[in-house]
Amino acid sequence: MISRHSPASIAPPSSDYSHGVKVTDAKTWMHISGQIGTHADGRLAGDSAMQMEVCWERIFAVLDDADMSKDNIVKVTVFLTKPEDVGLYRQVRDRMLDGHICASTLLIVSGLADPSWTVEIEAIAAK
C-alpha cells in the first residue's frame, strides 16, 4: 500500500509532488535507471519538451515490461540542464502522470553524459 505524506507543519510542496511516500507490504520494487530523451532507434527526440515526454514514455515502457504502471511510481529524480525548463518540466510531468503524485527531487545540473540531452529522469516504483 502506498500513502502520501505532506504534513501541515511544514511548507507545502512547490508543485505536484508529495514530501513523503510510505510503502507498506510491497512485494516488488523497481529501480529505473535515468532515462533520456532518445527514441528506440537512438534519435534524439528534439527540443526539451519532446525529450521530457520521451523520458516518461521510456519509464512507462520499463514499468509495463515489469507488469507495473505509473501508479506504482513512488519517487522520481529529475536532472535538467536548463533552469528555464523547470516550469515546462512540471507541465509535462503533470500531463504524463495524469494526477499521480509521488515523491520528487529536481536538480539543475551543468550537463549530462551527452551535451545534446537536456533532461534525464530516474524512478523508483513499488507494487
Identify the notable features of this structure and list them briefly.
127 residues; alpha+beta; 60s Ribosomal Protein L30, Chain: A; two-stranded antiparallel ribbon; globular
Short note summarizing the structure:
This protein has helices at residues 48-65, 86-97; strands spanning 2-5, 20-23, 29-36, 73-80, 103-108, 119-126. By secondary structure, it is α+β, with helices and mostly antiparallel strands. The model has no long low-confidence stretch (mean pLDDT 96).
Characterise the protein shown here.
It is a single chain. This protein starts with a strand and ends with a strand. It is of the alpha+beta class and 127 residues long. It has two helices and six strands; from the N terminus they run βββαβαββ. Helix content is 24%, strand content 30%. The radius of gyration is 15 Å and the shape is globular. Strand 4, helix 2 and strand 5 form a beta-alpha-beta unit. The protein has a single domain, classed as RutC-like (60s Ribosomal Protein L30, Chain: A). The strands form two sheets. The chain has a four-stranded mixed sheet with strand order 3-6-4-5, with helices on one face. The chain has a two-stranded antiparallel sheet with strand order 1-2.
